[in-house]
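Appendix B, record 7
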Amino acid sequence: MNEVDKVRVQAHFSRSLSSYRQAAQVQSAMAAELMAALAEVTPRRDFPRILELGCGDGLLSAHIEEQLRYQQLTLVDIVPDWAACHCRRRNAAFLAGDMEDMPLPDADLVMAGAALQWARDLPALLRRISAVLAPAGLLAFSTFGPENLREIKALTGRALAYPSMSELIAMLEMAGYAVLCARERLSVLTFPTPLAVLRHLRETGVNGVKTERLWTRQDLRNFTERYQEQFSLADGQLPLTYHPLWIVAQKRRDDGGSTAGGVAPGTKELCV
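Structure tokens (predicted):
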């Protein structure tokens, strides 16, 4: 289980309201890639009820609205202030709350862009999602793998417990899904200084890991020196590694089969 401080998560994302869209270039690319993965799995564009978890300011929501047909789009996020970003969306309703314990509406398609890593108990959340999915309904999500923010983990010893792709697939199969498509890659951003790295992390609201204390000036100085010593590239830039993963899975029918996109029951189309 992840040591996620939900109050901290909410506070950090609330502070990033004005900066998130510009700073979240990795998350923006992940949203577009997730829609592409869904299209590869199934030609279907009509999903009467769509549920998006962790909608944020709408990086993925905009793609859903533009590319899919639906009667009801339910947008869920732990930060109530994100509601203002969605007030003009077609046939959409925003619900503020924690996806792990709030009531979730029934859906034909559940999507989540870079959000499920904030779950304290991901296997339990996957079962909750399955409970509201229609028979043979689809779950399409992006998240992050174990190499995510590896520089920060190496220097601070603190990071979310990101499951590997094989671990995610095992969780999904245990929760009653057939994995139709799974892909992953590394994406490296570069910054001129360690302080620019920290500014980027603050602007994207990504730090929701429990911490015992605030940093002192000496802590910040040590972090800066060690980042430069251990990770400086030949041109003096500093890397920050992201490890995005994309998965499309289908809730198994009572007979154990799946139907989306003509993929045979129980098979995995690994889109690498």
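Remarks on this record: Residues 6-146+161-186+243-270 form a domain with the Rossmann fold fold (CATH 3.40.50.150). The chain has a mean pLDDT of 89.
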